[in-house]
Write a structure and sequence with these properties.
Length: 226
């Protein structure tokens, strides 16, 4: 992964991540607008997803929900997550796969919220009724899902395990909707990885392949040469 990122950034610099820069800009615009006296409700109408919403409306808002930052968290955190994780993913797997996997992770969180409310708070995977009016996670579910997918694709198993461990710890220490949606996003992306491993094309060689190519021994010299 390191060599993939280094080669792309040295060659193209910021041109390597146009979709990511657009996502950062769009998130910044939504943050500025929703903090004005007139812009909060329009932003909510465009990209705010809650379990209380009809499913068709939630699906309609989902594409923009990735770029609406959470109201209770500092916006710089969301921007840093998008710039770092979306940027790495865009270089490693391409912009359209980045968006696709981000949406899969986000939809998994949205779907889980409805299932959790339906089974009730007494169930281990259930949610309290109060969570029906809580906003979904915004870009963070997509960020977590993309981190898991890129780690799997480039065999960064330790990093992927650390992401899962941190997200599990979040739920244990702060049992809220966002944390459980993150776990749902991880589960959905892991299923996607299993499906791709079984029926998809072979994975890119990643850093091991590059390292092998760089350190391969030279061919033997022809007979009689000095």
């Amino acid at each position: 992964m390191f060599w993939t990122l280094k080669d792309a950034l040295v060659r193209d610099r910021w041109r390597a991540v146009p979709m990511t820069l657009g996502a950062v800009a769009l998130t910044s615009v939504f943050q500025i607008v929703q903090n004005t006296s007139w812009g909060f409700q329009p932003v909510q109408n465009l990209g705010s997803v809650k379990a209380v919403d009809p499913l068709w409306l939630a699906l309609l808002r989902t594409p923009l929900s990735l770029f609406v930052p959470a109201l209770d968290l500092p916006v710089w955190g969301a921007l840093a997550q998008i710039l770092l994780v979306f940027g790495i993913a865009e270089i490693c797997i391409g912009w359209w796969r980045t968006l696709l996997i981000g949406y899969v992770a986000t939809l998994a969180g949205t779907t889980y919220a409805r299932i959790g409310l339906s089974v009730g708070h007494d169930h281990p995977f259930g949610l309290p009724v109060s969570d029906r009016i809580v906003n979904d996670t915004g870009p963070s579910a997509a960020v977590v899902g993309l981190a898991i997918y890129v780690c799997w694709r480039y065999r960064a198993h330790l990093t992927g395990a650390l992401v899962i461990l941190v997200m599990t710890g979040e739920v244990l220490f702060k049992d809220n909707l966002a944390g459980k949606e993150h776990l749902a996003a991880i589960a959905a992306v892991m299923v996607l990885c299993l499906v791709r491993a079984k029926w998809g094309p072979a994975r890119a060689p990643g850093p091991l392949g590059r390292r092998t190519a760089r350190t391969a021994p030279l061919p033997p010299a022809p007979p009689g040469s000095a």
